[in-house]
């Protein structure tokens, strides 16, 4: 007081005290919670394993299909424009559409309306082009038939008993990561055809429905009664279904009288005893369903006397919003967690006064437990037979209540990930969290860069807007906003720069997390496009190479074909296609922008691989004719030969371009570099030059995998040329048949087929470099590299350790890394005077090579070539390898397909002819393994 302190500073009332206020819940949130409480099965957005995102329109009368796609102009990722399916407008007797559910195959979508009528759509090749598989008109229009729980059966593992895999965590050891993995069994029941599933539904009036496809592709239904409904208290509001280790279904359902009941269901497919010897397509199914009641309790366990939370006495907390059934799984220590029922109740106050701001969600859980029964020994003495042994009574099932937990948010979405070990929750306030399945403790929050599981664990998060559906890879979300618009949100890093090399801890952790997510997605056959979109932000760094190196470690990739001459094994190596696809995607910056070094390399090799597959199948496939006993070769159909002609021209142009770049490479080097002698250059300096000029020719030759593709296509071109000339000379319809075995009355070659073969013969006759010449070069190079590996000190052959080291070198070259030091002599032998390339130079005409037009390859990246391509206003058909005129707005005509992943284009051609069905099957997916979007007439972008 002596210092003149102003007491008003301490006790003044200049500022009013007020309680902090939060924004009141929106009208849309109240509406959504009412929908969730009204009954189960009201998911209005669903993301398929193939990447198709289905949503129900705001008025509930139509379905919209979207997917992630790479923009052809910029290479950026985003949502495609919606494709509206109006097939439901004429069948709205059952009220608005209510629920969406994708099958595990990714190709069937169940669309359920308010009356429980089920429509099943299927997708064959295009993500936005569904076909009607099962109409809902077969189902009755009855409110009591409404679906309150549904589940698609797991796909039967193939081969049988094959587990599902989860890669992770990545554990830091020194400067590298070691990748652990776990596995879990796949629980049945399964559809007898391992490629098909069946939809199981529970209705309001207690009917268990199974919709299953017969071997003819049509859907049929079997059903049984779960519960005898005699009053409104018995009506089912929510139901959940999960598979069990006994290959039966566990079903939990909640009734309006607050009961929680459990049932076990067995699906007997009615197969004969000899079914194992029959192919799946020949199985005639006649399923029946048997059920057994297990246990019952009340899902509203709290009473006013047992709780201090007064809000629990409110009517809102006596209403379920979610009911989920989680199958049993193992935790990190190997302990088995029993099947668990999860019930969610949300409290959302009607008025938001200062004294009524309590918003929260309560999560209740029950485990399904078995309790063995014992018989008192005294009962054994009652037997009339002295030595009789009483049978052990079966164990009884009971529900063990686990501790509940409460969060001060409204839970809108719950999904499982990591083989069911982690649960993803999304809330109405824009936040998400991940919880351990067993303890329900939050996880992925430790920021531990030494033990990495997921991007969310190492600083990645979602920004604004509440998410609604988790992607199949669990690394992005899509939501329906309050204004009805669909928004896709990625996991982003908001804490600065991630670094630029594997020496940076954050950078290496991001690479490891992406590699784990990608490998697990690949093992589960689900799309990883959102991971490509996330990684696309870091393409300026050496990100693609680092990601692929880590991914190859997890997948234990085999990329060494330096001693393998069986190219069928190379073609079937889908890991190579996967890695090339990632390189191609991350290297794409737009149609008229230069690709990165590794992107250009992968883009050309993927096309080369695809042509090898097409020509191989056309030559070796036998297609059934109108008579099942008659089989014809696709090479007897002129349309097939015409389709292959473009591929033949592309390969011949590619071989000529490859030769040109190899012969001119020494002239592009600085004067200080001389490739004709070992001391005339350094490999790092040569590698830097190749990357700066985007010259990929040396990597194409020196990598054993790409050299194998080149050798394979040269051999197939030689064979195709032989068939064409033989067919024209002998004039038979079966050029594959030996002439000595042909009857004298063989029908003459049709004019259309003769003209088609004339195209092939003309192309191979007028080529700049013959396939045989390139094959000779490749054979000599393969022999030289094989000797180099053998004679190196230490040798890269002769022991498992040496072969592993050689595979590591081949992996680096395939991912466009540096050449091993041992290859210096190989490069000298290639370019020296009278070396391997001199033999090629002597068999070509330099003038033809100098004036050659390689426009079909689209490899020239100079400004003049790019301007010429733009002015041409046409696009290459990636399968037929011919030019397609760009459509104009509003112009009707043939439609395009565009790959959602790499933006490649092909004409949308469908045919019913058997001889061309093999071609249709090969075009089901893009050569990069991406799925298609079918574009609207006149459109060029999905």
From TrEMBL:
Q: List each copy of the Mediator complex subunit 16 C-terminal domain by range.
A: 841-933
> What biological processes does GO assign it?
positive regulation of DNA-templated transcription
The superkingdom of the source organism is Eukaryota
Q: Name one Pfam family in it.
A: Med16_C
Question: Would the keyword Ribosomal protein turn up in this protein's UniProt record?
Answer: no
| Occurrences of domain Mediator complex subunit Med16 N-terminal (ranges) | 139-463
* GO-annotated cellular components: mediator complex
* Alphabetically ordered keywords of this record: Activator, Nucleus, Transcription, Transcription regulation
Q: What does this protein do?
A: Component of the Mediator complex, a coactivator involved in the regulated transcription of nearly all RNA polymerase II-dependent genes. Mediator functions as a bridge to convey information from gene-specific regulatory proteins to the basal RNA polymerase II transcription machinery. Mediator is recruited to promoters by direct interactions with regulatory proteins and serves as a scaffold for the assembly of a functional preinitiation complex with RNA polymerase II and the general transcription factors.
- How the protein assembles, per its UniProt entry? Component of the Mediator complex.
Quote the protein name from its UniProt record. Answer: Mediator of RNA polymerase II transcription subunit 16
């Amino acid at each position: 007081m002596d210092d003149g302190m102003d007491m008003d500073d301490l006790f003044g009332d200049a500022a009013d005290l007020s309680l902090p206020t939060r924004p009141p819940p929106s009208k849309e949130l109240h509406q959504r919670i009412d929908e969730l409480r009204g009954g189960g099965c009201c998911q209005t957005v669903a993301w398929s394993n193939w990447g198709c995102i289905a949503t129900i329109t705001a008025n509930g009368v139509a379905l919209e299909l979207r997917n992630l796609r790479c923009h052809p102009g910029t290479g950026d990722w985003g949502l495609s424009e919606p494709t509206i399916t109006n097939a439901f407008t004429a069948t709205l007797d059952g009220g608005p559409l209510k629920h969406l559910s994708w099958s595990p195959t990714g190709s069937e979508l169940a669309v359920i309306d308010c009356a429980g009528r089920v429509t099943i759509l299927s997708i064959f090749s295009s993500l936005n082009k569904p076909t009607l598989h099962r109409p809902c008109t077969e189902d009755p229009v009855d409110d009591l038939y409404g679906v309150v729980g549904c589940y698609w059966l797991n796909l039967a593992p193939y081969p049988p008993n094959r587990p599902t895999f989860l890669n992770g965590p990545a554990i830091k050891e020194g400067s590298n990561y070691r990748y652990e993995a776990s596995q879990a069994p796949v629980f049945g029941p399964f559809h007898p055809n391992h490629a098909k599933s069946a939809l199981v539904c529970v209705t309001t009036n207690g009917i268990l429905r199974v919709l299953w496809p017969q071997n003819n592709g049509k859907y049929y239904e079997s059903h049984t009664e779960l519960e005898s409904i005699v009053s409104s208290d018995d009506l089912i509001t929510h139901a959940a279904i999960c598979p069990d280790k006994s290959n039966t279904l566990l079903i939990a359902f909640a009734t309006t009288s607050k009961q929680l009941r459990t049932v076990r269901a067995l699906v007997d497919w009615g197969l004969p005893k000899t079914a194992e010897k029959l192919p799946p397509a020949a199985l005639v199914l006649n399923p029946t369903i048997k059920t057994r009641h297990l246990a019952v309790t009340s899902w509203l366990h709290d009473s006013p006397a047992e709780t201090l939370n007064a809000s629990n006495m409110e009517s809102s907390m006596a209403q379920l919003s979610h009911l989920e059934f989680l199958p049993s799984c193992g935790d990190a220590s190997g302990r088995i967690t029993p099947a668990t029922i999860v019930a969610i109740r949300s409290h959302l106050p009607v008025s938001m006064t200062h004294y009524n701001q309590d918003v929260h969600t309560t999560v209740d859980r029950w485990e399904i437990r078995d309790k063995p029964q014992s018989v008192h020994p005294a009962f054994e003495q009652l037997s009339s037979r002295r030595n009789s042994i009483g049978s052990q009574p079966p164990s009884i099932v009971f529900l063990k209540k686990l501790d509940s937990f409460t969060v001060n948010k409204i839970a809108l979405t719950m999904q499982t990930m990591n083989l069911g070990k982690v649960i993803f929750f999304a809330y109405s306030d824009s936040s998400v969290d991940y919880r351990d399945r067993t303890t329900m403790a939050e996880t992925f929050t430790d920021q531990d860069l030494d033990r990495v599981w997921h991007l969310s664990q190492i600083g990645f998060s979602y920004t604004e807007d509440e998410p609604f559906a988790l992607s199949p890879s669990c690394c992005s979300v899509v939501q329906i906003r309050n204004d009805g618009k669909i928004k896709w949100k990625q996991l982003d890093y908001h804490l600065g720069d991630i670094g630029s090399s594997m020496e940076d801890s954050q950078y290496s952790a991001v690479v490891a997390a992406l590699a784990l997510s990608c490998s697990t997605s690949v093992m589960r056959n689900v799309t990883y496009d959102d991971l490509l979109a996330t990684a696309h932000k870091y393409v300026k760094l050496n990100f693609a190479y680092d990601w692929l190196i880590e991914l190859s470690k997890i997948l234990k990739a085999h990329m060494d074909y330096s001693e393998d001459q069986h190219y069928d094994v190379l073609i079937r190596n889908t890991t190579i296609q996967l890695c090339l696809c990632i390189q191609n995607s991350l290297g794409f910056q737009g149609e008229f922008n230069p690709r990165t070094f590794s992107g250009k390399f992968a883009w050309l090799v993927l096309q080369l691989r695809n042509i090898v597959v097409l020509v191989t199948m056309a030559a070796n496939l036998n297609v059934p004719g109108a008579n099942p006993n008659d089989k014809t070769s696709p090479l007897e159909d002129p349309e097939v030969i015409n389709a292959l002609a473009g591929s033949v021209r592309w390969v011949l142009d590619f071989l000529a371009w490859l030769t040109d770049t190899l012969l001119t490479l020494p002239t592009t080097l600085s004067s200080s570099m001389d490739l004709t002698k070992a001391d005339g250059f350094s490999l790092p300096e040569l590698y830097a030059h190749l990357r700066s000029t985007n010259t990929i020719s040396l990597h194409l030759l020196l990598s054993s995998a790409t050299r194998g593709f080149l050798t394979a296509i040269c051999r197939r071109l030689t064979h195709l040329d032989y068939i064409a000339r033989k067919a024209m000379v002998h004039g038979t319809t079966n050029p594959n048949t030996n002439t000595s075995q042909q009857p004298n009355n063989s029908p003459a070659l049709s004019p259309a087929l003769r003209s088609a073969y004339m195209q092939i013969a003309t192309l191979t006759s007028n080529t700049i470099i013959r396939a045989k010449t390139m094959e000779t070069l490749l054979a000599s190079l393969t022999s030289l590299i094989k000797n180099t590996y053998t004679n190196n000190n230490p040798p890269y052959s002769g022991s498992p350790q040496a072969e592993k080291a050689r595979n590591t070198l081949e992996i680096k070259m395939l991912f466009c890394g540096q050449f091993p030091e041992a290859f210096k002599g190989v490069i000298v032998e290639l370019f020296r005077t009278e070396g391997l390339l001199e033999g090629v130079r002597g068999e070509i005409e330099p003038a033809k090579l100098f004036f050659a037009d390689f426009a079909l390859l689209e490899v020239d990246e100079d400004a003049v070539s790019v301007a010429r391509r733009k002015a041409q206003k046409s696009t290459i058909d990636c399968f037929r390898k011919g030019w397609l005129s760009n459509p104009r707005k509003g112009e009707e005509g043939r439609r395009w397909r565009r790959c959602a992943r790499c933006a490649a284009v092909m004409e949308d051609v469908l045919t019913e002819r058997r001889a061309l069905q093999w071609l249709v099957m090969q075009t089901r997916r893009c050569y990069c393994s991406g799925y298609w979007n079918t574009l609207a007439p006149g459109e060029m972008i999905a």
